[in-house]
Design brief:
With 453 residues, the chain is mostly helical. The protein is built from 13 helices and 4 strands.
């Protein structure tokens, strides 16, 4: 089913583009605005015909692609996820294929202009080759513009409106010349009206004709973009849509390259065509700035909602800040109440003083060496210096280590001749004394004459 839809759309694009090209070219031949036969004003007719052929080929390609895309309807591929890479690639492929098919259909214009242009010209040895080349250049231009027309409906509307205006202007110009029994070959000029007895700017720009091109480009740019802009189509496509129609005319004149001369109508159109593009762009940009229906009301509602949301966030942040402050104050109050509920400490008696115990001088300074000194000493630590009082726990513990041990047991050594008692190497806290013999009690045993011991 999908393959059938693609094939149907491709053949539709080829047929519509071929029909549009043949119809427009036949209309040009019938009205006499496209002519390859040398005349008295041969150079002007040649330039005018080349410009018309270039524009005809481009516009036919665009029209064929637009019609095929619109006639496809439900047969056009619709990706499941338009925002995915695969979906976008499918849409782009569809547009490119339809535009290429339309360009193929417009190739019918090439033989239709090359064969009649075989008549030799004094300024061109191969006029048929030149005419066919201009038709192919128009096809390429139309191919590029057709892709944009399929992407934005405003661009397609501008192309169709511009084509309708150009053909209307050409028909009216030819009718005016026929009424006056004039030459129809030079009657209709692409995109402008040939005002006679007009004001010329520097002998190059026909002022009334230039103003007509600018005003029409501005109006078509705005009116063609208005429906798409009010529908809410892509605003970028709406903004650039005013360039499409004047772009085809400007490139057609650029390729034709009219000769530089005084009071030449084609040179005037050649100079003004780029400014017509800017005028059309200005019209579409204005419509894009206006926006879709209810756009400004939606913007105001969105701004109001954003302001309300911002105020709500600010109020929430203020509430959180106030709650944090209140919680901090409550915690401080509870801490103060707990401090008040604690019992007061008992007073210290007036006469009570801390006991001061003697410690060795230098004990506080020699924390690391005190243990080594204590283990290696032969004498109590207080023997190494004077003492002083200290309240520190470390000094008090060190002082407690200096308390003398229990007195050594008494030594009862039998006296020997020539042997003296041996005194300890280091004096103890209390001198060791020998127990004196007991004194007689002064009482004697009964029945003996000696006193009792």
């Amino acid at each position: 089913m999908a393959a059938r839809s693609w094939a149907t759309s491709i053949f539709t694009a080829i047929g519509v583009a071929a029909g549009a090209g043949a119809a427009q070219l036949g209309l040009g031949y019938g009205l006499g605005i496209v002519s390859w036969q040398p005349t008295g004003d041969s150079a002007t007719v040649w330039v005018s015909s080349l410009a018309w052929v270039t524009w005809l080929a481009a516009s036919s390609t665009v029209i064929g692609a637009i019609c095929a895309d619109r006639l496809a309807g439900a047969g056009a591929p619709v990706p499941a996820d338009p925002h995915s890479f695969g979906g976008q690639a499918l849409v782009v492929a569809w547009r490119v294929v339809i535009a290429l098919a339309a360009a193929v259909g417009s190739l019918i214009i090439v033989p239709l202009v090359a064969i009649p242009a075989r008549t030799p010209r004094p300024d061109n040895v191969a006029p048929y080759f030149t005419a066919g080349g201009y038709a192919i250049a128009g096809l390429i231009l139309g191919l590029l513009v057709a892709v944009g027309a399929l992407a934005a409906r405003a661009v397609a509307a501008n192309i169709i409106a511009s084509s309708a205006w150009l053909w209307t202007l050409a028909v009216v110009a030819v009718a005016d010349v026929v009424r006056a029994d004039g030459n129809t070959a030079t009657a209709a000029q692409l995109g402008t009206w040939q005002f006679t007895d007009a004001t010329w700017v520097r002998g190059m720009v026909n002022l009334p004709g230039a103003l007509l091109m600018l005003v029409i480009a501005l109006l078509i740019g705005a009116l063609a973009a208005w429906p798409a802009g009010r529908r809410g189509d892509n605003r970028v496509g709406v903004a650039v849509s005013g360039l499409a129609g004047p772009l085809l005319v400007a490139i057609a004149y650029l390729l034709a390259v009219p000769a530089l001369g005084e009071h030449d109508q084609h040179m005037s159109a050649f100079v003004i065509a780029p400014y017509a593009m800017l005028a059309g762009l200005a019209g579409s940009v204005i419509v894009s700035a206006v926006g879709p229906r209810g756009y400004h009301a939606q913007n105001r509602a969105a701004r109001r909602a954003a302001a309300d949301d911002r105020d709500a966030r600010s109020a929430a942040e203020y509430s959180d800040w106030a709650a944090a402050l209140a919680e901090a104050d409550a915690a401080d109050s509870r801490r103060r109440e707990q401090d008040e509920d604690l019992p007061e400490p008992l007073p210290i008696p007036t006469g009570a003083t801390k006991s001061r115990e003697p410690v060795t001088v230098g004990a506080a300074e020699l924390d690391s060496g005190a243990a080594d000194m204590e283990s290696d000493a032969y004498a109590p630590p207080r023997a190494y210096g004077r003492t002083y009082s200290s309240d520190s726990a470390g000094n008090r513990a060190y002082a407690e280590d200096t308390v003398d041990d229990e007195p050594a047991p008494k030594l009862n050594m039998p006296a020997a001749t020539g042997t003296a008692s041996v005194a300890p190497l280091w004096p103890s806290a209390e001198p060791v004394t020998e127990e004196a013999p007991a004194k007689p009690s002064g009482r004697t045993k009964r029945g003996r004459g000696k006193p009792a011991e």
